[in-house]
Write a structure and sequence with these properties.
The protein has a six-stranded parallel beta sheet with strand order 8-7-6-9-10-11, covered by helices on one side. Helix 11 crosses helix 12. Strand 6, helix 8 and strand 7 form a beta-alpha-beta unit. It is about 40% helix and about 20% strand. The protein starts with a strand and ends with a helix. The protein binds NADP nicotinamide-adenine-dinucleotide phosphate. NADP nicotinamide-adenine-dinucleotide phosphate binds next to helix 7, helix 8 and helix 11.
């Protein structure tokens, strides 16, 4: 049977450590978990079974393995030390007999996005970023549809537009909308991106290094590697949609609490084909996975045991190829979720109603 392995790591330290080690999660605080994670070895998490292709009926099996570092630790430690620990975790995948290895969350963000890690391993490696792009762009298009925001005349924004995932998301959305803000921290990198994309883009492209321009956007796709939230309630206009692909999240939990006139959706969740059992709770309902996991799984179903998405320069061609492959095997964009809860049609209707109230109240104040 063909196999895969996927590396996860604690993102919300207390919550995630509790999922595997309830006692440690209870007695250690966040700082202690951060500190001890430096010395902890890679951890075997679970076996994954039941994944079956809708196209070929092929069944595969996989494993979750964990690199103990938190995002903060990965940012603080020297790159070499982080690579070493991720490669050590990858060796565990090799011992288990995995045919391909996926890099979850920050293990794919660090340094050169998988290139050095792949060099240190015999098993082929993918970051999962190509399918993450496909699913994020699909989700924002679908959310625009349910919120009655016509794409062709919409103003959109990509936050983290100079990043590996953000750059291709921007390239794709630039074909859809009328105006697109490219938001990041480095003006020169943003201008370079704008100049490259503007040649073929349908949208007018505008660069910004501040979040203030978000108040002009109806559709926002956010995918930074910030370890704290970067989007707060005061940045957003009533009736807008924010698709948050980043882990840790970019959108402050305050948005959910303070703004009932905005639709925030978690980016990157898909339905997995077959009666899958992950034998581990990573925070999703049964049968659903992150898009980056799904890329690894789709490659295993396809028998494409090669380094697939590596490095910071993704291509639209790869995004479209893996999207087609995943669709064929039966992966589907899942229903919307917001801060780990399902979004119902009733909630969408309420957001639309509240957005109309907020807009009227704003006009009345002018
Ligand atoms: N949901 C999923 O399935 C999934 C899959 C893969 C990855 N991810 C997540 O996606 C995110 C991005 O990954 P990536 O590989 O694209 O990362 P990346 O290549 O490092 O790009 C990160 C981008 O974020 C920007 N950024 C970083 N800190 C910021 C801050 N404080 N304020 C504003 N912008 C900031 C960077 O700007 P500069 O150019 O100025 O550095 C860059 O544009 C990560 O959170 C990762 O965990 C999610």
């Amino acid at each position: 049977m063909d196999t895969f392995a996927f590396i996860i790591h604690p993102i919300d330290p207390k919550r995630d450590v509790s999922r595997k080690f309830p006692l440690l999660g209870r007695i250690l605080n966040e700082r202690q978990i951060d500190f001890f994670s430096t010395f902890f070895p890679p951890v075997y998490i679970s076996e994954i079974e039941g994944i079956t292709s809708q196209a070929t009926d092929k069944e595969i099996k996989g494993w979750f393995i964990a690199c103990p570092y938190t995002p903060r630790r990965m940012m603080e430690l020297p790159e070499r030390t982080v690579y070493r620990k991720i490669i050590q975790t990858g060796k565990l995948a090799e011992k288990l007999g995995a045919n391909i290895l996926g890099l979850g969350a920050f293990t794919s963000v660090i340094g050169d996005a998988g290139i050095t890690i792949a060099k240190g391993l015999d098993v082929p490696v993918t970051t999962g970023d190509s399918y993450t792009v496909a699913v994020a762009v699909d989700a924002i298009r679908e959310a625009a549809n349910v919120m009655d925001i016509p794409l062709q005349t919409a103003t959109a924004a990509v936050v983290g537009a100079t990043g590996a995932i953000g750059r291709v998301c921007a390239e794709m959305l630039a074909d859809d909308v009328e105006r697109l803000y490219l938001i990041g921290r480095r003006q020169d990198a943003l201008e370079e991106l704008r100049d490259r994309l503007q040649v073929h883009a349908r949208a007018e492209l505008v660069v910004s290094t501040t979040m203030d321009v978000l108040s002009e956007a109806q559709l926002i796709l956010t995918v930074t590697s910030a370890i704290h939230d970067v989007i707060r309630p005061e940045h957003l206009q009533p009736g807008s949609v924010v698709c948050d692909v980043a882990r840790p999240r970019d959108v402050s939990a305050m948005v959910a609490a303070a703004r009932d006139d905005i639709l925030v959706i978690d980016g990157g969740m898909v339905d997995v084909p077959g009666p899958v059992d992950f034998h581990f709770n990573f925070g999703f309902p049964a049968g659903k996975a992150y898009a980056c996991m799904a890329e690894t799984i789709a490659l295993a179903l396809e028998g494409r045991f090669e380094d697939y998405t590596l490095g910071k320069h993704l291509t639209r061609q790869r995004v479209e190829e893996i999207d087609g492959m995943a669709k064929r095997h039966g992966f589907r964009l899942s229903g919307f979720r917001s801060f780990e809860r399902e979004v119902t049609q009733e909630q969408i209707d309420t957001v639309r109603r509240n957005a109309n109230h907020s807009r009227r109240a704003r006009v009345a104040q002018m």
